[in-house]
Amino acid sequence: MDEVRLGKQTPTICIRQPYSESIGTEAVDLYNRSGRTAQDWQVLMVEDIMAVDDDGLWIHMKCGWSIPRRNGKSEILIMRVLWDLTHERRCLYTAHRESTSASTWEKVTRLLTKIGYREDEDFKAYKSAGRRSIEWLKDGSEAVA
Domain range for residue 51? Predict the structure, then answer.
């Protein structure tokens, strides 16, 4: 039986540029292949973040949220990092606290394995002197935390 959710499950206010295409579905699908399931509000945000124009360029060059105490904010960025790594992109993940970026690096590494990618064959995870990165061996894509 489905659990009844109280309150509004989507953002109260959403200010974004209009768009007709997003590659966010690809990122969500990749994330869901790890055995996790993106929540509806996360899917909406990833779709907005990854909206593209007719030339395939990002519509939103900057994104900002005001999300109150809610679990799952980092998961949105994890979806984006997973997509970037597997699509010849470089990305930089930062957080106010080092422990947050370290935790995210560990989650991304773990999720890549759960999706079916192999460390040292598909990707290489580096951790050295406070710097963490994941390199996609096929094309050199990299995520740095």
Answer: 21-144
